[in-house]
Amino acid sequence: MNTSAAVAILILAVFLGGVTLGVVVAASMGSRLEDRRFSLSGAAPGIAARGARRLNGFGGSGIHFRPRDRGR
Hints:
By secondary structure, the chain is mainly alpha-helical. It is built from 2 helices and no strands. The protein has one domain.
């Protein structure tokens, strides 16, 4: 294997690792936003939350849980 092929493989590995890390971070941010706003029973509050729902396979219809200290 020559040097240019090794560099190309390294660049591809770093790129794919960055994409994977970006997806995980976006899903984590969306999940935290949902937890803070207690918004799982309604529409997703933003793009990150909508993406997190899609990645996790969660649909919010039919869930009507409201914490005791919210909404009073």
